[in-house]
Design brief:
This protein has 178 residues and is of the alpha/beta class. 21% of the residues lie in helices and 24% in strands. The chain folds into two domains: 129 residues, 3 Solenoid (UDP N-Acetylglucosamine Acyltransferase, domain 1), CATH 2.160.10.10; 47 residues, no CATH class.
């Protein structure tokens, strides 16, 4: 009962809600804590770092493991939501605003909604292996195609009038009227 009273008073004073049943390791740090919520069956490893608005949320009201388990040295960006009885490995970085609903392996960087691994960090030699990102590749291809079509249109507008094809309106390209 005393733990719940302390939890409620702390939430009012700090804007941070940590359920008294949560297990938290040494060196846990909450930076700009307003809006941080840590659920009852959450487990947080040593030396983890949360930014504002992070939620370790559950997916059920049953009295079973229903909140995330985080390994050691995990950094969770502002507004990230980790939902369900998932496991997040050691040395993981979760980007701001991500929604993580699946397990995350050690040394991974996760971003997006839903969260997906975009890189792995090798702590042995401090290198980062970037993974393919099909969404980013598609965006790059579309931007390239738009550039090509704009060049094609500009070329067509600069050509002299040919038989059967009307000349573009003189003011269409932004020319001023005399």
């Amino acid at each position: 009962m005393l733990a719940r009273v302390v939890s409620h008073i702390s939430r009012i004073l700090t804007g941070i809600e940590i359920h008294p049943g949560a297990k938290i390791g040494e060196g846990f740090f909450i930076d700009h804590g307003m809006g941080v919520v840590i659920g009852e069956t959450s487990e947080i490893g040593d030396n983890c770092h949360f930014f504002q608005g992070v939620t370790l949320g559950g997916t059920s009201t049953k009295r079973a493991k229903r909140h995330p388990t985080l390994g050691n040295n995990v950094v969770v960006g502002a507004g990230a939501k980790l939902i369900g009885a998932i496991t997040v490995g050691d040395n993981v970085r979760i980007g701001a605003g991500s929604v993580v609903v699946t397990n995350v392996p050690d040394n991974a960087t996760v971003v997006g909604v839903p969260g997906h691994v975009v890189a792995y960090h090798d702590p042995g030699d401090d290198t980062v292996l970037k993974l393919p990102d099909p969404e980013w590749d598609t965006i790059q291809q579309l931007e390239q195609r738009v550039r090509e079509l704009e060049e094609r249109i500009a070329h067509m507008e600069s050509e002299p009038k040919e038989k059967g094809r009307p000349r573009p309106h003189p003011h269409a390209a932004g020319e001023e009227t005399p």
